[in-house]
Design a protein that fits this description.
This protein has two domains: 97 residues, no CATH class; 35 residues. The protein contains two helices and four strands. It has a four-stranded antiparallel beta sheet with strand order 1-2-3-4, covered by helices on one side. Strand 2 and strand 3 form a beta hairpin.
């Protein structure tokens, strides 16, 4: 069997569950022992149950948390770039393919969402301009 890491991170919403991988038993199965829970919203983690985390486990979990937060930040910006693309596709759809009934169904919601986004972006841009002075 290949060399496996000591810890396995099962990603979930807002973090992960951390397991220590046990040695193979007589049935050649891996044993997973839950040792910690990671919360990416709070950027922290805590031991599970009575387990006391070793310094090495703490370091490994912190390294995973730091890397995970970086990945999530990259995905967030990528999602915004995809949103820009979707807005462009929506414009093209509205101009070239949408029926009157389809436009009637979505126009008010789109206009409200775009107005809300515009107000937020203008306010944030003004705040940044004020910070530069």
């Amino acid at each position: 069997m290949t060399d496996l890491p000591d810890l396995y991170f099962r990603a979930r919403d807002n973090g992960a569950v951390v397991f220590r991988l046990g040695d193979e038993n007589r049935h050649r199965r891996l044993a997973f022992e839950q040792i910690a829970v990671v919360n990416t919203n709070r950027a922290d983690f805590k031991a599970q149950g009575d387990h006391i985390l070793t310094a090495q486990e703490r370091a490994t979990i912190q390294d995973w948390l730091d890397a995970r937060l970086a990945v999530l930040a990259e995905r967030e910006v990528d999602d915004i770039h995809r949103t820009i693309d979707q807005m462009n596709y929506a414009s093209h759809w509205a101009q070239t393919k949408a029926t009157d009934a389809q436009l009637a169904e979505v126009t008010d919601q789109l206009l409200l969402a775009m107005h809300d986004l515009r107000e937020t972006l203008v306010r944030k841009k003004a705040e940044r301009a004020g910070d530069d002075q």
